Amino acid sequence: MPHEQHTIRQRLAASAASFTLLVAGAGAGAGALALTAAAAVTAQIATAGPAAAVDNGLALTPQMGFNNWNSTGCGSQFNEAMVKGIADLFVSSGLKAAGYTYVNMDDCWALPSRDASGNLVADPARFPGGIKNVADYVHSKGLKFGLYSSAGTKTCNSAGFPGGLGHEQQDANLWASWGVDYLKYDNCNNNGVDAQQRYKAMGDALKATGRPILYSICEWGSNQPWNWAPAVGNSWRTTGDISDNWSSMINIAHQNQSLAPYAKPGAWNDPDMLEVGNGGMTDTEYRTHFSLWSQMAAPLLIGSDIRSASAATMTILKNTDVIAVDQDSLGKQGTVVSNSGGLVVMSKPLANGDRAVTLTNENTSARTVSTTAQDIGVGGATSYALKDLWSKATSSTTGAISASVPAHGTVMYRVTPGSPVPPPTGLDQLSDLSWTSAVSGWGPVERDHSNGEQAAGDGKTLTIGGATYAKGLGVHASSDISYYLGGLCRNLSVDVGVDDEVGGNGSVDFQVYRDGTKVADSGTRTGNDAAAHLSADLTGGGTLRLVVTDAGDGMSYDHADWADAKMSCGNGPSAGTHALSDLNWTSAVSGWGPVERDHSNGEQAAGDGRTLTIGGATYAKGLGVHAASTLTYYLGGACSSLSTDVGVDDESTAGGSVDFQIYRDGTKVADSGVVTDNDTAHHLTADLSGGTELKLVVTDGGDGNTYDHADWAGPVLSC
């Protein structure tokens, strides 16, 4: 849009606190400040969830094409011959084949006044054949044609061409009759009329024509269009105008990065046109520009005069590997994974399960930028194939992703996971396992901490309704995490809720899917609710998905916890009876010394115990521990009962009192009561039917744990 309008836009934008913060970081060397500002306003821009995408069937992937403004402005070279020449070049240069579709005309195409009937009139000096003639020519090349106006009384150029305010249906009908396929609708001279009202009026008018016209809202981000524009148009400008220099480009990228949750098929964040090839940046910087716009699922509108473009410019614009990331059908905008010292990593999920990752160096000297497959949201594979989308080099990694990146440069990889690793046998915390894919609305998925919303590790202890959890996953709606099961897992058990860090705000819905079938749903959970418990049958499933959606009132404060999420996988012990000391435990803790197999505890080094003896009776098999002690075994639903004698071992000659307890999946199923060194063995039998986990617990008898050498004597597990 006209560069002379920058100050107008900035004054308008100053009325919005969030935008004021965002532009405050603009200027040379202000990259870190702009990122800080962008982070600071994330909570402000998240005041409502994304509106549903406008239902016109257009821009299911971000629009690609050309706009003349950045290269011509209102200069005399902007005319019919130029526009037709661009259409010719789209075909002959391979840009059309690369995906560029729209040939768009910006401001200055009309006369300064409407005709006697109130219709817009094309400037006969620039467009002697009229606009329909130009549109027909563009269409004859298999391309689409776009036009410009403003949601005000006049457009943005100082000559004052007519705007669309108050003429919405009349103008829309005229454009449709000319064969217009795309409208860029600016924000100048709007007379203070409510933005939503103005832009909706034109959106309704375009719809009423019956012609499919892609609607590009150019409101500059002044009134947080990401909250309302998705239901009105196909894209919305998120910032002021771009300029052809590094500082402008990278600061606009920073502003747009935090808006990722609002992008979706048919509705895109628009950080403005491309400056690639206009001469104000190096080719390295232009590759960063093109990489970041594609990673952010932004519209790709060429803003340079391709009639005189260099070979390097055309190579950048026609990089089909990078374009494929922008045009990926999943329709996810990439998010920032890490940002430190001017080294920024972004990750973008792709429809086939791959990830695009950008490693950007915003510094003025070369740096190494690093991340991992797990950090970018893929994991759980034995190896990963990497394709450098600029050099085309291919390589493989077991998880580390790193590159030496030149000053102001970006290395862009497509990461393809190899064969997934089956989950381990046992009852495992999900936060200890590798996911195959992870997406969080804001900030990364956090292991064993709440989401925190911004950088990795900024969360707190998982807390729901005052209850704290040491293990779990912290996310922000909308979130989707996948795990590979390989048909080996049985059950998921988890508490869910909105984390207390949002102070009673937020409302979400937790859903569990096995191979695409929903197997558990929490319903709406708010920040005022205690944790809800979900149990999901995973039997035979190949994949597990954990999904958190907002509850219909937007994503504000939707910090969601999958707390104490435990998954059981693999088979339990084989059928028959087993001496428990012959089986492998999944965890073992003893108060002093290790847990001893078939010997008493002894208290110190492994193997220092004796034959298990309680009240003079000896036992060849069993487990010797010292209070406090906990042993766990994975059962996998295969076992029916445990039978065992328990007591204080005779080696404790100066006291000792303990309590033996048996738990099946957290439920106590047997308790000896307090047993002392003067007692003979007590016999316990526990029903384990259907249980996933067996836990053997020994506590002191209430008088401290001195001499509390405890024996699980002759324990037999029936499966």
Uncertain runs with pLDDT below 50, 5 residues or more?
1-48
Number of strand segments = 42
Mean pLDDT level: 90
- Placed side by side, the strands forming the largest sheet appear as 7-6-5-4-3-2-1-8
Alpha carbon gap, first and last residue = 74 Å
Largest sheet: 8 strands, parallel
* Shape summary: elongated
Report the radius of gyration as a whole number of Å. 32 Å
Proportion of helical residues: 10-25%
Number of helices, where a helix is a run of at least 4 consecutive DSSP H or I residues: 14
Overall structural class, as computed from helix and strand content, comes to: alpha+beta
Task: Report the portion of residues in β strands.
Answer: 25-35%
